[in-house]
Amino acid sequence: MTHSHKDAARLAKAEDAGIIGQLLAADMRTRITLAAPDYAKQLVPMIDEKLLAESWLEAITSRDGETVLVATADNEIVGFAAYMQVPETGEDGGKTAEILSFTIAENHRRQGHGSRLLQAVVDHAKLGSDELRVWISPNDEARVRFYDSAGFGATPAKRTLNLGPVKDPENLWVTRIKADGED
Question: Which domain of life does the UniProt lineage start with (predicted)?
Answer without folding.
Answer: Bacteria
